Each structure stands twice: as C-alpha cells, then as structure tokens.
C-alpha cells in the first residue's frame, strides 16, 4: 500500500500542479503534502478547511454533506481544487491541490484530480 505522501506525488504529474495536500477539515492542519508547499500553505489549509466547514454549516447544519464533492477557487494567478475525501460532523479529510492557472486547463485538471483522488486514502 502506498504512503499518503506517495499518493500525493501522483498529482504533481498533472499539468500546472504546484502542491497537493491532505487537510483535516476539523482543524485545518496539514496531514501530508507533496510539491512546492510555500510559506503560506498552513494558512491556506486553515482557510480551505474554514470554507468547507462554512458550506457544511450553511447547507447541512454540521451534518456530513453527501452532495458536497469539491470546492474550486479561481484567482488571476491560481486555481485551488479542494475535494472531500472523507466527511464526518466533527472530522474529515480533504484533498487540496494548488495549480498555476497560466499552466493548466481548468477542466482537464479538475477531471484528472477527480480521477486520482480515490487512491489517496486507499
């Protein structure tokens, strides 16, 4: 069975990916990462976890969201894809992938990330 870090390294083959990380939804802490993490990755991880918790609270009152699969954030320079790997009321894990927007095709990147994500926790 591959390690969590080994699973994350597969995402680095997707065009434009700079960083892939697994984040604990409840705490915003990084469980594992691969690629170019940058100094702001811990703050970004906390913000992404906050976003997921906010969506969960708005739509489901803190219950797991069966329908929430992915959150995507697009700025002028980057694309962040956050996929829910496991969702529970007080915990959960999400996959966070940071891409250089100038080096990627948003649709193809999202498709490839969705194809690779089931293997992260396998």
What can you see in these coordinates?
By secondary structure, the protein is an alpha+beta fold. The chain has helices spanning 4-9, 41-60, 106-116, and strands at 17-24, 30-35, 70-74, 78-88, 91-100. A five-stranded antiparallel sheet has the order 2-1-5-4-3, sandwiched between helices. Strand 3 (70-74) and strand 4 form a beta hairpin.
Average residue pLDDT: 87
Q: What spatial order of strands do you see in the largest sheet?
A: 2-1-5-4-3
Low-confidence stretches: none
The proportion of residues in beta strands is 25-35%
H and E string: HEEHEEEH
Give the terminus-to-terminus CA distance.
8 Å
Largest sheet: 5 strands, antiparallel
**Assembly level:** single chain
What Rg do the Cα atoms give? 13 Å
**Quick one: how many beta strands?**
5
Structural class: alpha+beta
Total count of helical runs of at least 4 residues: 3
Percent in helix: 25-40%
Tell me the layout of helices and strands.
Layout: H1 4-9, E1 17-24, E2 30-35, H2 41-60, E3 70-74, E4 78-88, E5 91-100, H3 106-116
Antiparallel strand pairs: 1-2, 1-5, 3-4, 4-5
Brief descriptors of the model:
5-stranded antiparallel β-sheet, 3 helices, alpha+beta, 122 residues
Structure in a nutshell:
With 122 residues, the protein is of the alpha+beta class.
